[in-house]
Design a protein that fits this description.
heterodimer, A: 116 residues, mainly beta, seven-stranded mixed β-sheet, four-stranded antiparallel β-sheet, B: 112 residues, globular
Chain lengths: 116, 112
Amino acid sequence: EAGVTQFPSHSVIEKGQTVTLRCDPISGHDNLYWYRRVMGKEIKFLLHFVKESKQDESGMPNNRFLAERTGGTYSTLKVQPAELEDSGVYFCASSQVGRDPSYEQYFGPGTRLTVT
Amino acid sequence: DAKTTQPPSMDCAEGRAANLPCNHSTISGNEYVYWYRQIHSQGPQYIIHGLKNNETNEMASLIITEDRKSSTLILPHATLRDTAVYYCIVPPGYSSASKIIFGSGTRLSIRP
């Protein structure tokens, strides 16, 4: 069974540009999460989808970040316009709905974003 | 989340058991203990979780004290590939959200 996949693995963009990250969760996993690790800091939660609905977006840093999950399958995270402080590694994770407790999450390899 | 305390770093000889401690003295009765790890340049990896009984899987064993205020993750025969940051996490007992709050973890180094 394929794990969580993320694309691209690396992205280097200039300040002010737009970048879109993609995450494909494990098939059948309705929970999808985005996290990120900024250099030297701890891994931080960004948001949580249940199918196509945003369950919790309390970790989104500002309105330059837009996450979507149309159709409840893959998800995209768009950063527009990118700022230097957005550099870091963005992780996606998925888990099954209805699994109690639901903190058994499976992470992708991450997208390393560098804003210059 | 119940606060957890872990040593910032540990080391262990290859082939020996690695015992990683975690204190969670404010844990509530229905809160689980989860362990994750992050190997360099990879995404975090779920290892194991438990409530009050000891648990074992193909990766590790989890020993939770009877009062549940602390636990130990045991890697029975550590290899160089087990070098990683290990996170002990105690999520809230009930929540419609299921975000993981990672702390700073324990950096485990396995020496040859």
